[in-house]
Amino acid sequence: xxxxxxxxxxxxxxxxxxxxxxAAASANETTGHNQKALDRIRNDQWHLQFLRxxxxxxxxxxxxxxxxxxxxxxxLHPDLRGNILAGADIIEGGSGDGRQDRDSHxxxxxxxxxxxxxxxxxxxxxxxxxSKILPIYDIPAGGNGQPDLLAQSIQFAxxxxxxxxxxxxxxxxxxxxxxxVARALGSNIVIVAAAxxxxxxxxxxxxxxxxxxxxxxxxxxxxxxxxxxVTGPExxxxxxxxxxxxxxxxxxxxxxTGTSDATAIVAGAVALIRSKYPYLPxxxxxxxxxxxxxxxxxxxxxxxxxYGVIDIVAALTADVPPLGxxxxxxxxxxxxxxxxxxxxxxxxxxxxSDSTATVRGLATLGVIVAAGVTWAVIVRRRRRGDDPPPxxxx
Length: 394
Known about the structure:
Distance between the termini: 42 Å
Radius of gyration: 20 Å
Mean pLDDT: 81
Number of strands: 14
Strand content: 5-15%
Number of helices: 12
Structural class: alpha/beta
């Protein structure tokens, strides 16, 4: 592997490329013809209950949000049917539109974000099952990506007007990749990236180490730091990263451990926030995610948990004070006006008259434009450990 290679940040259990719900089932079970097997997959997705996804889905499911997934491509799994857009191949050997995967990693990440499962609440379920995936093939099966190829993927995602880019890989940077990341952040896009896995990685990899990118570490089933996850001052939030079941190639399922999986889960959470608050600028979306995280470890931000374990329900419902400039809530009237949550709702809803909604819509549009310009010229300050803890650990 060259020093500049981008490694996939997931320690996939090798037998899990075609894993069944019981991790040793027949081919018939892995292809979806056995209802018991499909039920078992949903039950084995422990992170759904851990994150209270049922409650979150009563609030938002990702409608109207497209998440770019630069990876090994995305297979057309039954649990993802209808949610995979025509994307792009950055490297040769794919289908031409990103919708082919010979590795399973990209399909697994897409499933964690946008799988809708099957009838009777079976099969794999993603965090944002009504979001769309823009698949980008830039990492060969069993191989490593390159920073400049990832840069091309990010540029393509920008051109397709995605709201979120989920990067479950990391490594060295290049000038072209740094420029692409800066352009994405300046385009009101939230970039979520994997911190990296021990022992291969000893520090947070790029682009997770870049200021403005949501750097994701991992926790285990007990909500404690996952041994596989690297630590460092760049960590923003953590999410489940151990024994994570998702979609795989050929209609099968996989079980992975690593910050790749945690990253896709957080990207799904961001998709839900962007769906619930479509006029909220990217920096405020990130603020909502970190401000509502459940603090772990020492009070405040720390190198293992960042600002804490993501709390998706709180991120969708809490009255989060804005950072200041760039917040869609800046247009809310002073003195008894609507809450932060209400102010971020799209115009034309039940919050007020048509004229009020129009004014709010124009105001928020101006804020979005201003926020994009600001991100293009000012790097978002990463909050440090001396900031007050956003929430009390539970």
